[in-house]
Amino acid sequence: MEQKKILIITYYWPPAGGPGVQRWLKFAKYLPEFGWKPIIYTPENPSYPLLDESLMKDVPEDLEIVRTKIWEPYQLAEKLNKSNKKFKAGQFDVGNNQSWKSKLSIWVRGNFFIPDARVFWVKPSTEFLEKYLKENKIETIVTSGPPHSMHLIGLNLKKIMPNLKWIADFRDPWTEISYYKHLKLTNRSDKKHRFLESEVFKNADITLATSYTDAENFRKNGANSFCITNGFDESDASTSLNMTQKSNKFTLSYIGVLEQLRNPENLWKVLDNLVKTNSDFAENFSLKFVGRIDDKISETLENSNLKNHILNLGYVSHEKAVNEMANSSVLLITNFPNDSSKGIIPGKIFEYLATGKQIISFGPNQADVSKILDETKAGKHFGYNDSKEIEDFILEKFDLWKNGYLSENTENIEQFSRRNLTKQLSEIL
Predict the structure, then answer these.
(1) Which of 49, 179, 226, 368 is the most buried (most CB within 10 A)?
(2) Name one GO molecular function term (predicted).
(3) Same domain, 324 and 365
């Protein structure tokens, strides 16, 4: 049977690092099993906040990749203020930590580049792809955002070629994302963002969300929306699971980027107190960070009782990160505290699940993450004001660890394997 072609328009592609890359990298890996031939369209000279060469080996050898040049103003922004490098990853200083340069840069970012600084790639990509799609007889496209400029390429193409089937994949929401309100938008800019988002929802044949709540919110806003979560790749998981071993310390690990807006201060207070008052715990405890942790958070921890218990490995390859997960006792995941973030399911939770380790999670009440943890019996979700319950959870896991019973007995996790998720995608296609 001849495979149908599908063009995937994505800004992030290896050697870009971070969770945003992996969703379509994994779909592209498994789609051929379900009758689809993926073709990737991505920039030739992108400006990525993180690089991870180890992801290159996941790119199928026979995958067709089409690249064109992009112009983006980040180089200029970084000259103005080096902390602008954070913006590329959707992070920035908040509250009292904002300098006037940060404030100016955030204002410029939100009001001048709508929806984002990759908007200059929209027009040339539309012109190039209109011709490319016709010549190659491609009838189905996917746009993956953020950056949400990718969806504007899809919107333009759909208007020129109404018979084109278009899937808009939102790895994160657009105007509903928690940092949207920090962008210092004028009324006019806010209206423009919302208008463009609604145009995408109305014109895309299908809008994909990565969480149950997002899919519901998109439907309320006029989208024909389905949820396909992120997941874990069995081929990554099997290598890490073989390396699982009981570490000689009770290790609580955070893997990934930790910024100020998702900082679980109540957890640090509980751990600080345990280290101070419980000598057995203090002797056996290690707090491990793998990835990029905000300087302000580092500073606070360095000035606490936890400072001699911290192991900060910095940014490592995805492969090494998976191994570090496997060699931990409890894994930490954090989300923004506000209710509007209930639908965010950080991609790493699925790799956490694949290790079979217990997970401690922070975020708003009734979050989608909480539903997944309950369903898989893989850990517990807390609010940002809990403290007694957190201490009980940590001590319970510590006692199990000490007695060699911190077992890996999660359930129902195969539904989140990348192959099964690609099967879901092919059914929607």
Answers:
(1) 368
(2) transferase activity
(3) yes
